[in-house]
Amino acid sequence: MEGDKPTTLMCTVVAIDHTNFSYRVCSVCEKTLPDNNINSSSSSLCKYCCHFNNAFNPGSSGSKRLFRLLVSIASDTKVFVVIMFDRAARVLFGCSADEFFDFAKSHPSAAVTAGKILEGEILRVTLSKPKNGNAQHLRVVSVVPLWSGFRPAIETLRELYGVRVG
């Protein structure tokens, strides 16, 4: 990448790290929350929102999950690891991180299977350098699947596990 300009390239998904695909945030301000209660997707608000929540927004649902995926991609010249946050990951998964987390609780191999489903997908991605000086991976700011028959991972998983929607 030249300078700080985003770069668009064609690539293939080589692998997806399935061990830690999401993180919890406050549902009001989206500040990152500690993942001390990983079995609950709505255990708390951040300290700031919790303090003001009762007076201004008594019906808030606590926390939610957002995607954060480490993805190995291959361009025509190299293989490298990028990070894909919620907006881009939703394109590939076809659902929210909360929905996928709940699906994976019921189907423990779903995260591994989703990675295998997405391996080999050809994508057009736009990458940008991280704004945080400590971050080590390029960010995927947009992703477009290039295969006309692309199906989001959750659709294939539902079919594979015999799960009906609705």
Please explain how this structure is put together.
InterPro entries: NA-bd_OB-fold. This is Replication factor A C-terminal domain-containing protein. The protein is α+β, with helices and mostly antiparallel strands. It has a domain of 110 residues: Beta Barrel (OB fold (Dihydrolipoamide Acetyltransferase, E2P)), CATH 2.40.50. It is built from five helices and six strands; from the N terminus they run ββαββαααββα. It has a five-stranded mixed β-barrel with strand order 1-3-4-6-5. Strand 3 and strand 4 form a beta hairpin. It is globular, with a radius of gyration of 17 Å. The N and C termini lie far apart (44 Å).
Q: Descriptors for this entry?
A:
166 residues, alpha+beta, OB fold (Dihydrolipoamide Acetyltransferase, E2P), five-stranded mixed β-barrel
Describe what is shown at a glance.
By secondary structure, the chain is an alpha+beta fold.
